[in-house]
User: Which sequence fits this backbone?
């Protein structure tokens, strides 16, 4: 054969059409016999190799080998072998080409050709020294799995660097799900068709891992943990994906490796957690399934696992001590035990899949088989509860940590009441987990606290107070000492401790300029403990209210939530609320719930209207960009060209002390006032530049200046208090600081404004809420009630403490501390009585529905008239009041009913609020000097607006308070102001009828008539017309039937202005008012005539004639516009008690004629009265009704 012919043959083999049958091509080329000839083998090999090398193109070699494999007989293998060995650099290409030809031939259903190529590949594996290339290519192309497993076994026998464990790990774990499925499906069928293959693999695996456990008794070395973990993971994949059955030796080795002792390290923890998931998900791999040995072997294996699990439980505390900051296997043990007891196989399977990183279908079957081991032999209900108490808490628990955590297990056990049932104390774990929580808050923390409180309250039902804490297990409440630690140093910073109600010192060196400090500060544990305290308090009060409605107990129930004042005084509740609000995204669940509890049980800390005002004041969204910039005009131009730095707290205090120093010169006061203005302005600008929580914290070092000095300066220095911009800035700072430390700031301000500083130097916030009348309203300097900016602050203090007082007494009743149960509460009983006696008004019994039955009051002026308008009943109001007053000590007995306690509380609170309202109303009365001021723009007018607006909101919040204030009455001269500036006082219109019917005092009747007349000028409603008509009819009856002669003159003078106002408001009742005036004039005129004869009659006639001419000439519409003023008040009328009876009648008759003339003018629209009667008509008017007969008939009835 020539070289040309050989090249032609090689070229034909390289380009052979694999789509055609091999026999057809052999007949066409007639080449197979030539290449298969043994005699020409050496020559062909030499020529072929030389030709390929000479062409410098060996890429044709793989195709030639493929062609030889397909179209030549077996004798051509010798040529293939020599060609392959001559070109080792082409091995990988040859493998790839053969595998590609096999794939194509199988696709064309050419099984003979593919079989020949496969046979060549098997032949290559017999003489090629390195078959890793072929193995890798088969795995990459996912072809010929039988060849792959044969090559792997062969490589494990011959290659020192080849590990069958690593091979299975690579194929089943590292190469992806497709490769795993491809090879796993083959091995499942291969195990069944070729039993010897399982034995070979078991033997090879066992020999490969013999070095992991050198010493069966020693602890598994740290450096062997990772290989052992990789081995178990490979066995898990092999058994889970392929159904591989371990031999008895390998099974024993795996079991021994799992139960082997390990060291105390993080790697050891990971290894143990993996083993726990392995023995559950791949349980069948550890048990012998052969017939006859199943029960004995399974029992022995199960016993080894039980011993190992119990050893893990007993050694978990050692791991916790060694690995303080790392996780432990205790969490996994607890989670598996809990899930097995609650029958959650799906969740268990998810945990196993996540731990092993393998998802095998056999897991479900093995989990069901493992339930008996975990639920009955290892993790009983009691052991699970005990295990939960030993699980380490999750460090830095927050919402970003996902997955199955110990908190989920403990929460589930609390829902099942497992700790109470088995008397396992979990308080320590809950306490540590709260302390380890950070923001953003984990979403399960609130539910955990709530269910823990529920368990604690459930367990303590029926227990004595000495048995509540400590002795018994289960869920027990936190002790007060444990809670107090969390609100003291070092858990709390100096700024937070300063805002506590019980704090005494001031901190002026806070790092307020450090924004990073505010960001790093984390008060999550304190917020959770505060929520715990309020929630357990709320739940216990709710349960007690439910119990009290069912039955009345004769003694108090042991309490879990009656924390001492010392603890509450150490908690800055408002500070924590503001902190949570500034980090709302981190406390999105906690903040609204905490705010609701604080609003319910500490309403004075979250006043709704004031909160809205503070939002408008502090939120930059509602503030213009030029807020307080016009404040620069306080001082000379040029001082504030650039933003100024806020003064240091000590510097501001020194400036304020200069102003308050007595005896200072005028020049020093002026310079100090200017410096004060500049300092306050700079501080306001600095605060406005801050954002979020830091803007409020910035004011804390200035607490002493804002709470003590600035209010006093406004009170003492008229130049500064009259500067509206300066006062607005001071109020801005005060209210901003009030958002952080309200209780302490209120005490500081009241002390600064008190008139007797030595008396109130030890004043506390408890004193303010227990008796706001004595310790706030009456304690401050009276000049406060003529200083509007300071009064604004005081009104806020009064409002907050009235709310605090209501909540205080309500909780005293609900918690059964309102009455004395022991000797220790007896002192509180005396304190309650002292507080009640300090109130100016007596306690008046009020029913549960707050319907006022009447107040017993004596006549304020002397007289012989009767004190009631109706016949006296058998049991009068005075007797009831006296009985209630005399029975008050007996009401504070341990057996007092809840209704009685609630009535006493309602009475105390209502009288306290009514006293505050009446005192504030009296402060609205003008002094003699203020009456002489002829101006509407005065401090008094502004004070009246402030006070009336506050009273208006009080009446809206409690309409019954308005009725109580009306029953007790107030100075009649305040009716014009009250009806005009307090819109909510209209609710008292219904009370007027009760006063008319049930009151025993003519003064009260006159007060009601005056009130109705003033109210009618502003409310011309149908209901008001009906009320006015009723009042007029009552007064007509009093004037014509009940009033004595001595009473009639005073009564007519008191009622005359009211008649005119009623006639102006409702002209339709003018004729009834005229009838009252005419009848009274007739009676009084006849009394004058009888007493003085014709001389007095002539004098009276002349006076009326003069009055007629004056009225007809001077009375105009302008003079009728001031009808809300009480004409004929004590200041403008003479002292009637100094006059004789004839003089009284004379004066009253003249005044009545004047009011009659006014009434005519006011009711001319009705045309029922035209002009005043002339002098000629007066005799007939006086004799229209015999006064003597009326008087005699009246006394005969009497």
Assistant:
């Amino acid at each position: 054969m020539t070289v040309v012919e050989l090249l032609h043959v090689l070229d034909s083999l390289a380009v052979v059409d694999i789509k055609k049958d091999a026999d057809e091509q052999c007949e066409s080329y007639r080449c197979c016999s030539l290449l298969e000839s043994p005699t020409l083998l050496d020559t062909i090999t030499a020529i072929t190799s030389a030709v390929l090398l000479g062409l410098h193109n060996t890429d044709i070699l793989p195709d030639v080998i493929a062609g030889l494999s397909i179209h030549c007989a077996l004798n051509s293998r010798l040529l293939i072998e020599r060609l392959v060995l001559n070109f080792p650099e082409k091995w990988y290409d040859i493998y790839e080409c053969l595998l590609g030809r096999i794939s194509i031939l199988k696709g064309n259903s050419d099984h003979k050709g593919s079989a020949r190529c496969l046979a060549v590949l098997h032949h290559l594996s017999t003489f090629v020294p390195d078959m890793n290339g072929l193995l890798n290519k088969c795995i990459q192309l996912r072809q010929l799995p039988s060849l792959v497993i044969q090559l792997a076994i062969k490589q494990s026998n011959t290659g020192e660097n080849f590990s069958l464990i690593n091979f299975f790990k690579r194929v089943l774990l590292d190469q992806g799900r497709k490769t795993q499925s491809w090879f796993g499906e083959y091995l499942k069928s291969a195990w069944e068709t070729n039993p010897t293959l399982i034995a070979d693999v078991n033997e090879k695996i066992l020999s490969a891992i013999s070095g992991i456990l050198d010493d069966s008794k020693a602890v598994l070395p740290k450096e062997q943990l990772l290989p052992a973990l990789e081995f178990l993971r490979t066995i898990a994949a092999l058994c889970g994906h392929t159904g591989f059955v371990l031999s008895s030796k390998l099974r024993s080795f795996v079991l021994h490796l799992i139960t082997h002792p390990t060291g105390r390290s993080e790697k050891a923890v990971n290894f143990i957690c993996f083993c726990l998931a392995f023995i559950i998900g791949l349980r069948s791999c550890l048990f012998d399934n052969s017939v006859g040995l199943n029960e004995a072997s399974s029992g022995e294996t199960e016993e080894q696992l039980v011993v190992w699990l119990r050893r893990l439980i007993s050694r978990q505390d050692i791991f916790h001590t060694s690995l303080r900051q790392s996780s432990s296997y205790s969490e996994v043990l607890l989670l598996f035990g809990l899930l097995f007891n609650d029958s959650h196989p799906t969740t268990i399977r998810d945990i196993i899949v996540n731990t092993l990183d393998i998802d095998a279908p056999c897991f479900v079957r093995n989990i069901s088989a493992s339930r008996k081991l975990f639920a009955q032999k290892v993790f009983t209900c009691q052991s699970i509860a005990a295990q939960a108490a030993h699980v380490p808490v999750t460090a830095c628990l927050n919402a970003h940590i996902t997955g199955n955590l110990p908190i989920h297990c403990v929460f589930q056990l609390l829902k099942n009441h497992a700790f109470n049932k088995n008397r396992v104390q979990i308080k320590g774990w809950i306490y540590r987990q709260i302390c380890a929580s950070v923001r953003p808050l984990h979403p399960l923390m609130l539910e955990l606290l709530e269910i823990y409180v529920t368990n604690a309250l459930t367990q303590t039902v029926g227990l004595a107070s000495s048995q509540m804490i400590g002795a018994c297990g289960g869920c027990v409440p936190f002790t007060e000492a444990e809670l107090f630690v969390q609100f003291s140093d070092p858990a709390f910073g100096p700024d937070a401790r300063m805002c506590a109600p019980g704090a005494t010192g001031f901190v002026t060196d806070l790092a307020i300029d450090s924004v990073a400090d505010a960001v790093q500060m984390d008060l999550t544990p304190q917020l959770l403990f505060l929520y715990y305290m309020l929630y357990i308090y709320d739940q216990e009060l709710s349960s007690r209210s439910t119990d009290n409605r069912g039955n009345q107990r004769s003694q108090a129930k042991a309490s879990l939530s009656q924390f001492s004042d010392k603890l509450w005084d150490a908690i800055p509740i408002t500070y924590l609320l503001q902190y949570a609000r500034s980090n709302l995204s981190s406390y999105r669940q906690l903040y609204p719930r905490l705010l609701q509890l604080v609003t319910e049980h500490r309403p004075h800390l979250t006043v709704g209207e004031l909160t809205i005002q503070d939002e408008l004041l502090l939120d930059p969204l509602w503030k213009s960009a030029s807020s307080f910039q016009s404040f620069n005009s306080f001082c000379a131009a040029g001082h504030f060209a650039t933003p100024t730095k806020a003064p240091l707290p000590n510097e501001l205090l020194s400036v304020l002390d200069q102003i308050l120093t007595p005896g200072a010169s005028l020049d020093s006061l002026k310079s100090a006032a200017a410096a004060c203005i500049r300092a306050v302005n700079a501080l306001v600008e600095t605060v406005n530049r801050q954002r979020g929580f830091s803007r409020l914290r910035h004011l804390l070092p200035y607490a002493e200046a804002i709470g003590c000095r600035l209010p006093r300066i406004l009170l003492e220095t008229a130049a500064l208090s009259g500067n509206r911009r300066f006062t607005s800035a001071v109020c801005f700072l005060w209210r901003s600081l009030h958002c952080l430390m309200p209780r302490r700031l209120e005490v500081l301000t009241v002390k600064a404004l008190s008139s007797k500083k030595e008396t109130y130097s030890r004043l506390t916030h408890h004193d303010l809420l227990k008796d706001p009348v004595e310790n706030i309203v009456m304690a401050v300097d009276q000049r406060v009630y003529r200083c509007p900016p300071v009064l604004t602050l005081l009104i806020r203090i009064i409002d907050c403490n009235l709310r605090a007082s209501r909540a205080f007494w309500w909780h005293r009743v609900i918690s059964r501390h309102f009455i004395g149960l022991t000797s220790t509460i007896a002192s509180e009983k005396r304190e309650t009585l002292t507080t009640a006696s300090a109130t100016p008004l007596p306690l008046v019994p009020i029913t549960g529905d707050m319907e006022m039955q009447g107040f017993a009051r004596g006549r304020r002026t002397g007289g012989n008239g009767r004190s009631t308008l109706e016949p006296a009943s058998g049991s009068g109001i005075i007797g009831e009041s006296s009985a209630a007053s005399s029975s008050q000590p007996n009401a504070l007995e341990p057996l007092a009913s809840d209704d009685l306690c609630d009535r006493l509380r309602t009475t105390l609170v209502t009288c306290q609020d009514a006293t505050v309202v009446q005192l504030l109303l009296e402060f609205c009365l003008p002094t003699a000097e203020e009456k002489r001021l002829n101006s509407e723009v005065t401090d008094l007018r502004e004070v009246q607006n402030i006070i009336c607006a506050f009273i208006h909101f009080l009446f809206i919040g409690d309409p019954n308070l308005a009725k109580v204030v009306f029953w007790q009455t107030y100075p009649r001269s305040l009716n014009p102001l009250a009806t005009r500036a307090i819109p909510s006082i209209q609710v008292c219109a219904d009370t007027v009828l009760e006063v008319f019917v049930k009151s025993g005092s003519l003064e009260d009747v006159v007060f009601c008539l005056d009130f109705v007349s003033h109210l009618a000028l502003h409310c011309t409603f149908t209901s008001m017309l009906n009320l006015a008509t009723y009042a007029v009819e009552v007064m007509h009856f009093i004037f014509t039937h009940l009033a004595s002669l001595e009473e009639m003159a005073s009564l007519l003078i008191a009622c005359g202005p009211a008649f005119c106002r009623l006639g102006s408001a409702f002209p339709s009742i003018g004729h009834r008012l005229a009838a009252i005036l005419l009848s009274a004039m007739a009676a009084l005129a006849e009394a004058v005539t009888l007493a003085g004869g014709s001389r007095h009659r002539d004098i009276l006639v002349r006076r009326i004639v003069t009055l007629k001419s004056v009225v007809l000439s001077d009375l105009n519409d302008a003079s009728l516009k001031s009808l809300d003023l009480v004409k004929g008040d004590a200041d403008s009328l003479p002292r009637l008690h100094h006059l004789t009876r004839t003089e009284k009648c004379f004066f009253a008759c003249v005044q009545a004629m004047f009011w009659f003339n006014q009434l005519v003018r006011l009711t001319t629209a009705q045309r029922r009265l035209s002009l005043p009667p002339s002098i000629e008509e007066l005799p007939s008017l006086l004799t229209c009704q015999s006064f003597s007969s009326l008087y005699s008939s009246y006394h005969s009835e009497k």
Notes: Residues 1000-1112+1131-1185 form one domain. The mean pLDDT is 76.
